[in-house]
Amino acid sequence: MKNPHSLIRPLVHNLRAYVPGEQPKTKGLIKLNTNENPYPPSPRVLRAVRAAVDGRLRLYPNPTAERLREKLARLHRCKPENLIVGNGSDELLALAVRGFVEPVGTRSTASQPGKSVVQYFTPSYSLYPVLADVHGAMKNAVPLRADFRLPSVAELRRGQRWNFSAALTLVTTPNAPSGCGYGTRELAALCKSQRGVVVLDEAYVDFADENAMKLALKHPHVLVARTFSKAYSLCFQRVGYFVGHPELIAALHKIRDSYNVNGLGQIAAEATLGDLAYYRANFKKIVATREWLSRELTKLGFRVLPSRTNFVLAKPPLFPAKDWLQQLRCRKILVRWFSPPEVREYLRITIGTPREAMALVEAVRKTLQALESKSGRSSKLRASILTDCASLPALSCRSVQP
């Protein structure tokens, strides 16, 4: 009888899979760990999806998301040929690795080793190294600056670790998990210096001050990745897209799955584009809550990094971030902790509704009060942890559902 273990490729045996944020089974938790939008899709989107639940469910969806691509082309002032839609932007990132990177050991990589390189900064999206490993490619992870800013091209040349001939370079902008925003000018300089394909992964760009879409429409080797998940409340439907040169886009179309985007997802995304004012109002609410939460956590002793996303990266006081993760979970609040050394002292906290933000701040206060009670700390500490919540912006909010 065959041993199943022997049937699996060694590459897969040794693979460290991507670990998503916890999806809780316990009721009543406040979920601030996976960067979901705290506000629901617009009523127009919900109506469109409900209306589509009919006899069409027996039919295949449009294989290229043609109507959605046409609407996105009008939004970004380009042509449908500049766009490919995927099962979330994650599918498209995987397609980029498959389409532009040679696995290690192929004949063409002997003379041009850069053709097998997937390059990215660290810390950044933890899916990138997994995609490289799945494909059998080389990884080149290069540290960001200590403050999580992008190194300049000159700094990258001096450091001699960056590969300007890498087949594929992935840049999360704004960065995750730091939340740091990057300027279009510095991204343009980086793109111009690369000889391979560059993907600017703009999953969180709707919460930032600027975007780099024009770079994808100017440079033939640059792609911009966007998603309907983070800003547009469609995580459940899994819809993302790339914008770039038609030749790169056509190559990805060749290797994508047939009917890769479900029909209800296409309809939801199309309806979303017809109600952008609703979402832009929500972006403002989230940014206002982000700034409030950053101030309140700072008053409580956290070091909160400036953010241009719908989350903050914060270094908690007094005891390790991993222990804070457990303390907050005991108080029914989920946040995210990462083990790599650059970020293990921090928590990544999704921006929820104002009510959820207030609940997080109260949980932090109670944790500090419990610690103070046990250790007999001074009244000065007590004063610092009793900061008033009255400055929370008066925004409409939705209660957390159990």
Tally the structural domains. 2
| Secondary structure tally, helices | 14
User: Nearest-angstrom radius of gyration?
Assistant: 22 Å
CATH class of the largest domain: Alpha Beta
> Helix/strand-derived class?
alpha/beta
> At CATH's second level, what is the architecture of the largest domain?
3-Layer(aba) Sandwich
Indicate the proportion of strand residues.
5-15%
Kindly state the number of beta strands: 12
The CATH superfamily title of the largest domain: Type I PLP-dependent aspartate aminotransferase-like (Major domain)
The mean pLDDT is 90
Measured between the Cα atoms of the first and last residue, the distance is: 48 Å
Order of helices and strands: HEHHEHEHEHEHEHEEHHHEEHEEHH
Instruction: Classify the helix fraction into a percent range.
Output: 25-40%
Shape: globular
For the biggest sheet, the summary is: 7 strands, mixed
